[in-house]
Amino acid sequence: MSQKTIYLIIGLIVTAVLGVILLQLDMIRTGMEVNEQRYDEAVQDALKNAARELEQQEASEINLQTNGFNSSESNINLGPGKFTRDIQRSKLLGNNGILIPEPYSYRLRLENQYNNKDLVERVDRSSLEKKLQNEIENANLEGALEYGVYDNRKKEFIIRNGRRLSEIGADTSRHLDLLHSNFRVSLFAGEVDTPGYLMAYSPQKKTVIFNSIWYNLVASLLFVGIILGCFIYTIYVILFQKKLSEMKTDFINNMTHEFKTPIATISLATDSIVSPRVSGDPEKVKRFANIIKQENKRMNDQVEKVLQMAKLDKSKLNLNLTAVDLNDVVTDAAVYISLQVEPRGGSVETKLQAEPAIVEGDMTHLSSLVNNLLDNANKYSPDAPKIIVSTRNVSKGVEVTVTDHGLGMTREARKNIFDRFYRVHTGDRHDVKGFGLGLSYVKTITEAHNGTINVKSELGKGSSFIVTFPYRQD
What we know:
Its EC number is 2.7.13.3. With 474 residues, the protein is α+β, with helices and mostly antiparallel strands. Helices cover 57% and strands 17% of the residues. It folds into 3 domains: 3-73 and 117-203, no CATH class; 208-313, Orthogonal Bundle (Helix Hairpins), CATH 1.10.287; 321-470, Histidine kinase-like ATPase, C-terminal domain (Heat Shock Protein 90). Helix 10 (326-341) runs parallel beside helix 11 (363-379).
């Protein structure tokens, strides 16, 4: 898959995910607006019903007093003087001077009396409290609801949450939450001048509305999170597979090159041996036979490395645990690598400070591990390698450090050097050979021995590989 195709897929998936997120956010916003509107309507209806209850309660009192007055006063002779005072609210029914009060006339007087009362006397606080509570419960309104009665004539609050306010407590500056609220209805609205308002304020309104849609929000976030997680994982797998494919391609190219050279050498040596000019000379035959043997051993070593990693892949690694002296292992490995370093004008120095240096491990694998580190230090060093190998005792084990003054590595390279088939980019240098399996093998063997491996490196200044092995295995 090409880089362009990968970027196109990433772009399409990102666009789709962003579209889903935006749609979900819009749906959540719409849901909150609808729930807020329903909440506002429910609170407003509760206030209207409570105000209507007060008006009906007062009207019932007036009706009761009017009916009582009609039954007791309908046959009384009020006399001329009374007629003079009540001429505006009475009706003459006969010529004998007897006046009968008109029911509507008395009702008007009662209504005027109620209208002239202070608002605080007209509002039954207990009835208002009970009615509001019932309305709130019936409307399923969650959260506390603050309410108050505002006297429009006195320009102050007279009741707050069923409690009559004192002169100081009635100050509107103490009730700005109610004063600025949109929840309000007129009390006794049928009169010419509205005597007051019933107001309410919900301090938990936003919380209540959010709680009504939180499960939708959580579900949306969960599903979007799953989509994002799958998307990120998919992209990771694509990029990883692409990287792995590139490393395997490099591995095949390197392996082909590594095998091509000895095969060509063996072919030339074989042709030389069968040549009549060489076949009759035992010394030349022996010389070319040794070349064939060395190149064959070189190919066998390369194949062995690949087979070792294949065994590790299939978890077929069986450690033959014995007592291993790491000082001896380091000394033997240093002697071997010196044969390659010294012809290049380099040097290998050992600092064996560990005492004791004996650990429980597999002799073969530990030797291969140290040889791989030294071979790596040699390959990534300039023309005159300077390699230092040291051992020292640490808590519960022995530490082996291989330091070179070679090319060094970037931070990105340090993250990937233990990946299989990965090889550090060497710029214009093309003489660094290998399959990219050495450090992966080193890490695998270290972990198989319950050890740890760390790397310190700076580009252009060299690298240090620190491997620690415990004295005993579990």
